[in-house]
Design the sequence.
């Protein structure tokens, strides 16, 4: 840990110390996520937003629906959204061309999340019926 007394001194140190800049960058990126992490937000998506969006898109379906998720860390929230979309389309008996794009500043998490491999501990966050339907080896 460095002992710097002021922001101005730290900025000077940061401009001359590349390893400190990398460390600061990695410390600012928070890799905290899990499936259906913000339950209230996902409930609102499930109950209100997605039904309305699917109804609108069904009537205007000439182009794919594109969704972008930024700062997706390990991918659990992106996969959660994909699961909600699939379930909502099934419930509303519709099939739409949907493309989900996800991005993150940290290239390492992009590679890890793209593999779609998750530990058994996701059972705490993912409903049992979804585990068998959307994940292998359950």
Sequence:
């Amino acid at each position: 840990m460095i002992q710097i007394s002021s922001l101005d001194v730290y900025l000077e140190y940061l401009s001359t110390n590349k390893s400190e800049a990398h460390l600061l960058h990695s410390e600012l990126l928070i890799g905290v996520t899990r499936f259906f992490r913000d339950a209230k937000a996902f409930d609102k998506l499930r109950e209100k937003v997605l039904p309305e969006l699917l109804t609108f898109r069904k009537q205007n379906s000439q182009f794919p629906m594109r969704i972008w998720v930024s700062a997706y860390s390990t991918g659990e929230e992106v996969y959660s959204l994909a699961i909600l979309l699939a379930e909502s389309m099934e419930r509303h008996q519709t099939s739409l061309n949907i493309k989900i794009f996800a991005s993150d500043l940290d290239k390492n998490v992009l590679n890890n999340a793209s593999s779609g491999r998750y530990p058994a501990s996701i059972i705490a966050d993912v409903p049992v019926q979804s585990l068998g339907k959307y994940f292998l080896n359950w």
Summary: The first strand starts at residue 65 and ends at 70. Strands lie at 65-70, 98-103. The radius of gyration is 20 Å.
